[in-house]
Amino acid sequence: MASQEPEPSRNWPISVLSAKLSNNQNGQIEGTAAAASLSVQVAAATVNKSSLQTLITTVQAAYSTAVEGVQNGQYPVGSKAILNTAIAAASTVVSDTAASQQQIDAAVLELNQAFTAFQGTKLQATPGDVSGNGIINVGDVGIVSSAYGLTSSSPEWSTYSQADVNNDGVINDLDLAFIANLILK
Known about the structure:
Elements: E1 10-22, E2 28-42, H1 50-65, H2 79-95, H3 101-120, H4 138-146, H5 157-160, H6 173-184
Antiparallel strand pairs: 1-2
């Protein structure tokens, strides 16, 4: 989607065959011309779409890598659809060859607002809340216990990595003790 380039300036001939002119004193002068002409040069307005194109690329990249779910770092289910609607609206404006600079600027503002709102929905888990339910309890201890001994090289790691609450690459006594201390507080 390239930026819309302004049309080059053009010269248009204008022929005046007759004219009525005012002398600003309630008088009027009439005249005719046999062969007079005048050239008028009109420059086209420049529309810069680059900021909108760059923003669309940035937001699409974030959209493509975002994952919906209930885990830490994921986005609530349905949030990507809302962002995709905003991307589509901005893409419509950027591909419109008749779009004005005002429309481009408004699309930048709207897509920025939608992207900021989307980023604000990213789920942030509480350390020790292994289940992701917002509560640290014996259920979290159970998850860590069931994954006890796994390391980051274990085939099941992607399923249980959230049980490594201290992020040392191994699920062990340190993770169990961390959660137990949180429960006892």
